[in-house]
Amino acid sequence: MYHSSDRYTYHQIGSTMSPSTSPRRAHHLAAVVLAAACAVALSACDKNMAHPAKGPSPAASSEAGSRSASGGDGGGSTGGAQSTGGTGGGRPTVAQSAASAAGSAGRCRAASMRMSLGRPGQGAGNIRYALVFTNSGKQPCTLRGYPGVSLLARDGQSIGRPAGREGGAGQAVTLAPGASAHAVLHTVNEGRKGSGCWKGADLVQAYPPGSTESMTTRGSGLRVCGNAFTVSTLSPAAG
Questions:
Q1: Which pTM was predicted?
Q2: What average pLDDT does range 110-130 have in this prediction?
Q3: Three-state SS for 207?
Q4: Handedness of CA 76, 77, 78, 81 (dihedral sign)
Q5: Contact indicator for 100, 92 with CB cutoff of 8 Å
Q6: Quick check: 225 and 192 in contact, CB under 8 A?
Q7: Which DSSP letter does residue 151 get?
Q8: Phi, psi torsion values for 162, nearest 5 degrees
Q9: What whole-number distance in Å separates Cα of residue 103 and Cα of residue 97?
């Protein structure tokens, strides 16, 4: 047996309560359900915090920034190297080309030259001869300094002593194929100095600067007097 008030409580709670469930127990059950829901929600939040959405790492961001500042991978340094080239987009200037050609020319050797002795020039008691070296090769070559010069008799015997050096060392002379340079042989007229004259030379022997191979040409009656016999450094134009 139950009273009408018990029937009202049963119909008010519905199917979630049995006829014997009290209002206090109903409130307790609702609190449990709410706590369970909150626990599920907090678990989802913790999961999201433990596994955040992936983004670019600091190292990747730093690398991207560096690439942007330098104009791309390797682009900045390559562009800098190109910008330091010659005038006009890396083309060498005329002066650079001339310097390069002179620097690339090897030393003139006896085997690729011919030598000749010019006519004597006299003045104020001095006699001078131009000793001319001509590049007979197919490539430019360079001469610098003094040739080693001696006078020879027809049989190859030396006459007097080798020429001493006169004047400064001078600059390098680059000879294109067919071009010439010359040194000046200097002596004095007979009687200017009291030591007499050497025998006239049949041959002039010369070693080009830096060479161990000699060249010879006709002496054309060259005769040294007063023991005055010198040679100058090579000059670009033949005398």
A1: 0.57
A2: 95
A3: strand
A4: positive
A5: yes
A6: yes
A7: E
A8: -60, 155
A9: 10
